[in-house]
Design a protein that fits this description.
Elements (H helix, E strand, L loop, with lengths): L8 E2 L43 H10 L2 E10 L7 E2 L1 E4 L1 H7 L2 E3 L2 E3 L8 H24 L6 H4 L3 E6 L6 E9 L5 E6 L1 H10 L6 H10 L2 H9 L5 E13 L1 H13 L8 H14 L4 E8 L2 E6 L7 E6 L7 H8 L3 E3 L9 H8 L4 E14 L2 E13 L7 H25 L5 H15 L8 E15 L1 H30 L3 H19 L5 H12 L4 H7 L1 H13 L9 H31 L3 E7 L1 E8 L9 H21 L3 H5 L4 E7 L5 E5 L7 E4 L4 H9 L17 E6 L2 H16 L3 E9 L10 E7 L3
Parallel strand pairs: 20-23
Antiparallel strand pairs: 1-3, 2-4, 2-10, 5-6, 7-8, 8-10, 9-10, 11-12, 11-16, 12-13, 14-15, 15-16, 17-19, 17-20, 17-21, 18-19, 21-22, 23-25, 24-25
Helix pairs in contact: 5-7, 8-9, 8-12, 14-15, 14-16, 14-17, 14-18, 14-19, 17-18, 19-20
């Protein structure tokens, strides 16, 4: 800037780098003493000795923890752009903002240290004061409400001495008539008239300030240095609200929609907690049954865990907090260290503790009548680091902390299958205490997999795509031909020939990319010119209207045949899903088990059953469940027999059950789309088979092992076949399947060999 010794506020509500700065006004000199009532001291003494004002000014200057600065406004029409000088800033303002008086004036670098968003917001606050002065000049009275003029703004600033980021709530104030505009340019007057033809009311001004209508935006853009003559003072007044804003940010994070239990959000919440209470460390303590766990080093990837018997915590400040159900302050661990747990924290450098009870749940701890509570603990290396204000602040956080944990648990464990909900509820209890997630694992469970696949669905969809595209291209050709009759243009003729060629190609069939590429062609080469065609031909305009009338608004193309296809697939899937869900009632009655059902082109089900899910699980229940699975799949097959007659389609349904006698371990993994995945390399073979078996072929004939209306069972060992051969015999006895069983070997799959299959016809019901 032109004069670095007088860094000031620009009349454009903060000078940009390199802006010229005019002569600053005189800085306030606090070294002199004012007389009584502000008058000059005369030669003689008065009966009442004149009380110097200096101590009060010195108090504001050196000891006030309010941020204060006074800006002098003096500008004239057509005067060079210059910054407003800062006449006065108290010591706290200077320390916080890093400003230093040089040459009798202030070098105010404060604005450059604000974020871009804070700078714009502060500019807006200054603009309101100049707008108020403008409206008072034009209409004779105040039209901007004091509430809007003094609306607070919170900005972030790093303390120039400590480097700690502070949140400062600023307000701009002017005395009554303290900022006056005495003249304005014709351009500014015209903008004012364009915004309000008649004098506005306070309500109209407030509406424009909040809504920012185009005419009002133009007025604000015109309200700039050189467009008016003004004089007066603006007081910048602020207060440190770091604690309040940190607490607000922490609460917003805790009660937000995202889970706080994720690593990054927990780390951020932990950082804010320590910042809010000026703590050097934090920890978690939980107890379940008779065992307690202390978690420390929460800011590291791996937390440190120490176990204690709950009985040994009887005299601890931790249980004191849970019994009282309130925040407990331990001023000095050196004087209050009754248990080994507290001694361990003391040995790690903690001298004072702040203990916040987190989430209560119904559970007895040892002989205590208190409900056990997870604790969030804050520690300081200094004794007497926390006080009553900290306790009060921590108490206000308890509902947010509780809501955060409950919300996180609900967010992660919604729509859990009833058979495994109990295990997720156990994990929810741990997480509600703020503990790190533990894997949800069910070991040694039996997998039962089956699929009912709609065969021919891809061909049916391709035919629907072909039909819709042919319809749309024929409509487009009608538009171009109508335009060609009215416009003598060679390009129109060539476009018609291109469309005819596409129609000929579509009649032979569609390719994988036809649906996308051909629609893009119509949009870019035909629809783009509709306006031109309509201008030159009434027939073309009619053809365009017919074209547009057939376009589905949701898909932006002709979607008639595909809509029928989608509806048919939806009905078939719904029929299969309802049938399977009906059978799930009797299957769950045999033994509680996990069942995941997915519907795409057909349905596939994945069942896991075993003692890890149902503690009363037996071998007989496993066999009963397997037999019931076959009966359910056969019922789905029967529902598909009337498919062709009901939906007029060539699609059919095939049915397969995959057998595995060995158990697997399943684990909940939040990074995958499934609730459970198998764990360990020994279980991956089963997953590979699941993904590829529905397209498998007979090793001898080359035909698909699944056939319409038939039940196919895939197995590996003779023991598995012996069990399922008996089930097929039972199904025949019930009149569900035919007596003839076709058998063969499955063609080797990638990474899997030796599978066999048995196939039997399902009888109509």
């Amino acid at each position: 800037m032109a004069n670095e010794s007088s860094r000031c506020i620009d009349t454009d509500f903060m000078a940009s780098p390199g802006a010229a700065v005019g002569s600053p006004g005189p800085a306030i000199d606090l070294s002199y003493t004012l007389g009584n009532n502000g008058g000059d001291r005369q030669g003689g003494e008065t009966p009442n000795a004149v009380r110097p004002v200096l101590p009060w000014l010195e108090l504001i200057q050196h000891y006030s923890h309010l941020v204060m600065a006074v800006v002098d406004v003096a500008t004239a029409i057509s005067a060079p752009t210059q910054a407003h000088p800062v006449l006065f800033a108290n010591q706290y303002f200077c320390r916080l903002t890093g400003t230093h008086p040089e040459g009798g004036h202030l070098d105010l670098t404060f604005f450059d240290r604000l974020s871009t968003a804070d700078q714009k917001a502060l500019q807006e606050r200054f603009r309101r004061h100049f707008l108020s002065a403008l409206l008072r000049h034009a209409y004779g009275h105040d039209l901007v409400s004091r509430r809007l003029l003094h609306e607070p703004l919170v900005v972030s600033l790093a303390d120039s001495e400590t480097g700690q980021v502070k949140q400062i709530e600023l307000r701009l104030r002017t005395a009554e008539g303290g900022l006056e505009i005495s003249a304005i340019t014709p351009e500014l007057s015209a903008s004012l008239t364009a915004c309000w033809v008649a004098p506005p009311s306070r309500e109209q001004v407030a509406t424009h300030l909040l809504g920012k209508e185009p005419a009002f935006k133009l007025l604000l853009a015109t309200l700039k240095p050189g467009s008016y003559t003004a004089s007066g003072h603006i007081l910048i007044e602020g207060i440190d609200v770091t604690e309040r804003e940190t607490s607000r940010a922490l609460i917003e994070m805790l009660v937000g929609h995202e889970s706080v239990l994720g690593t990054r959000r927990f780390e951020e919440a932990n950082r804010l907690m320590k910042q809010l209470f000026d703590a050097t460390d934090s920890f978690l303590l939980s107890a379940e049954d008779n065992q307690a766990q202390l978690f420390t080093q929460l800011d590291r990837p791996e937390w440190q865990t120490v176990n204690y018997a709950v009985e040994d915590l009887k005299e601890s400040s931790f249980l004191r907090a849970t019994k009282r159900r309130e925040v407990v302050n331990v001023p000095d661990l050196a004087l209050d260290c009754a248990t080994q747990c507290e001694q361990d924290l003391f040995n790690q450098g903690a001298r004072s503790l702040l203990l916040i009870p987190l989430v209560m749940r119904t559970a007895r701890v040892g002989e205590s009548k208190a409900q056990m509570v997870g604790l969030v603990g804050l520690a300081s290396s200094k004794p007497y680091a926390f006080d009553q204000a900290d306790c009060s602040r921590a108490t206000t956080l308890i509902p947010a902390l509780t809501a955060a944990m409950r919300h996180s648990v609900q967010d992660r464990f919604t729509n859990i299958h009833p058979s495994v909900r109990w295990r997720f509820e156990q994990e929810a209890e741990r997480l509600s205490l703020g503990l790190p997630p533990a894997p949800v694992v069910f070991e040694s469970v039996y997998p039962l997999y089956g699929i009912s696949d709609i065969r021919g669905s891809s061909d049916e969809r391709n035919r629907a795509i072909q039909k819709d595209l042919l319809s749309q291209f024929c409509l487009a050709l009608a538009v171009v031909e109508a335009a060609g009759e009215a416009v003598s243009n060679a390009l129109v003729g060539q476009l018609a020939l291109d469309l005819a060629d596409h129609i000929t190609a579509l009649e032979d069939g569609v390719t994988v990319d036809s649906e996308v590429t051909l629609l893009r062609y119509l949009q870019g080469e035909v629809e783009l010119h509709f306006e031109y065609f309509a201008q030159h031909s009434a027939e073309a305009e009619t053809a365009i209207a017919r074209y547009k009338a057939t376009i589905d608004p949701d898909h932006a193309c002709v979607y008639t045949a595909r809509a029928v296809y989608d509806q048919t697939i939806g009905h078939i899937n719904g029929l299969l899903r309802d049938t399977w869900n009906h059978w799930q009632q009797s299957m769950q009655a045999i033994t509680a088990h996990y069942c995941d059902l997915e519907a795409t082109d057909g349905i596939d089900h994945m069942i896991y059953a075993g003692k890890a899910i149902d503690t009363s699980f037996t071998e007989f229940q496993l066999k009963s469940l397997r037999y019931e699975q076959l009966r359910a799949v056969c019922d789905c097959a029967r529902k598909g027999f009337a498919l062709k007659a009901t939906y007029d389609t060539d699609m059919t349904i095939t049915h397969l059950v995959l057998v595995q006698a060995f158990t697997v371990d399943i684990v909940h993994d939040e990074t995958t789309e499934h609730l459970f995945d198998v764990r360990g390399t020994r279980d991956t073979r089963y997953e590979i088979v699941k993904k590829r078996i529905d397209k498998a072929c007979d090793a001898e004939t080359g035909g698909r092992i699944t056939q319409p209306g038939m039940l196919t069972v895939v197995y590996s060992t003779s023991e598995e076949w012996q069990e399922y051969e008996r089930y097929l015999r039972y199904l025949h006895r019930e009149g569900i399947v035919d007596s003839v069983v076709e058998q063969g070997t499955v063609e080797p799959l990638q990474g899997v060999n030796g599978l066999k299959f048995a196939r039997v016809q399902v009888k109509p019901g």
